[in-house]
């Protein structure tokens, strides 16, 4: 049954569980179902409000994963988690057959990095089921997105993209209160593009939809601080803090406990934090 994320006075924390052998952040540490389930339960214990499971790496240069393999990786994990965790489960997929099966098993949200462009059957499925969907901006594909990303103006161009994508989603029958936006940090963006997006998150928030920020451990932090993936905690927390201050409703992260504490502090300082119902 679809779980609701209620209106709340705090930022929500989405914990990342990569069920892949080639994730940039954990190098396949949670690829085995037992390890993925254990990680998801640990993130819930640390305070995750949502668990985001992905079985197809979307790091720069990553190759597509066939539907059958994506299902093989996800199915045993989701089957166990729907019985063992109490928070909503999000599935990071751009393929309708994967989304359909995971929602049938009990998942709650679809996180589509293609914003419904990869599989044209996705919109109708989500509309029929009343499922919340995260529409993410990506320039190009995971294979090509970092080759030479260009924008006339990154913020304005992505705002226009979201206007078109939300109109499309509604035309497919998806309710507006089921739509969440993610500007896609690192997905077809240079370092400066990423900076611009984070500085101007309030402009995306002004569209009236809940906003996800996913910058945890990404290359903008590694490049800025000249640090490897496993030493990017402080940078990730800094970006999360600024993002929350600028209007992010959900932060998608690897380090749940630390980010949860930062989010509580920033929410207290803001004093007016509200997360729309999704």
Description of the molecule:
With about 280 residues, this protein is of the alpha/beta class. It has a single domain (about 10-270), classed as TIM Barrel. Helix content is about 40%, strand content about 10%. It contains ten helices and eight strands. The chain has helices at about 35-45, 65-85, 95-105, 120-130, 155-170, 190-200, 200-205, 220-225, 235-245, 255-270; strands at about 10-20, 50-55, 90, 110, 135, 180, 210-215, 250-255. The protein has an eight-stranded parallel beta sheet with strand order 6-5-4-3-2-1-8-7. The longest helix has 18 residues, at about 65-85. The model has no long low-confidence stretch (mean pLDDT about 90).
**Rg calc:** 17 Å
Q: What structural category characterises the helix and strand content?
A: alpha/beta
Q: Average pLDDT across residues?
A: 91
How far the N terminus sits from the C terminus, by CA atoms, comes to 15 Å
Biggest sheet features: 8 strands, parallel
How do the strands of the widest beta sheet line up side by side?
Answer: 6-5-4-3-2-1-8-7
Number of domains: 1
Tell me the fraction of residues in β-strands, as a range. 5-15%
The 3D shape can be described as globular
Poorly predicted runs are none
Counting DSSP H or I runs of 4 or more residues, the number of helices is 10
The CATH architecture category equals Alpha-Beta Barrel
CATH topology: TIM Barrel
Number of strands: 8
